[in-house]
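As a warm-up, study this chain.
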Amino acid sequence: MSTAAPLPAKAGAPSRPRSRFIAIVAYTWRSCFPRKRWAAVLLPCAGAVLFGLLARTVDHFPTRERAFANIAAEGIFSLMMPIAALVIGDSVLGAEVRAGTFHFTWLSPAPRWQIVIGRWLGGATVSITTIAPAAALAAVVAGTATSAGAAFVAAAVGSVSYVALFIAIGCITRRTAVWSLAIVFLVERLLGSALTGIAQLSPTWESRAAFVGYLDDPPSRLIRSGIPEGGGAIVRLLIIAAVALAIATWRMSHMRLSGASD
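Now compare it with the structure written out below.
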């Protein structure tokens, strides 16, 4: 990983706020995603496409759209999307905090909100260009191209919300991956299945609701009372992302960085 300062400025003159922000985003793309990280991101994306292929083999649903909807809800939006977003969210902040290389950005003259938004924007663009197309391609592979648009939008907004959540976790604790997995599989999957109040704050459940809301004939088992569907779920996901970024900004102002983790 590169250790060069991400915010170069001309000698004798401070860099402009806009140029600092662009430098943060560019540094995120350049230094936070080495080849191994890209492999870790693309692997669950490939898994999403395989779930689309799996939907073609399921013959006890009346239509391919319903078959893909059931497979996508459980396999893509509840498993592959959170895992890929976790890799991205950890890459843009948590991994650098643990490695001790985040000092170069944290000690720069950029405001804390610029660092948080810049890192999130860098990760969000990666998720939109990898996770969302994989979800759409899975719909095409499943034989229901009419579901591709809904899958793309739901995966894009859901993964962007997840990246913001994982950035906030990275600002709170160094064990980003452990706590993120606990939130996804213990809080969202287990408690969210039983408690609608938790599901309403879950990117998994909200992205599923967004996907289902845009289908012409969604399975009734995927419609959950108390959770908005379609555009309402997208608005909820954006609110979750905004709150997570606000928490990350506040927490980053109180961070105490030390050396690399053992």
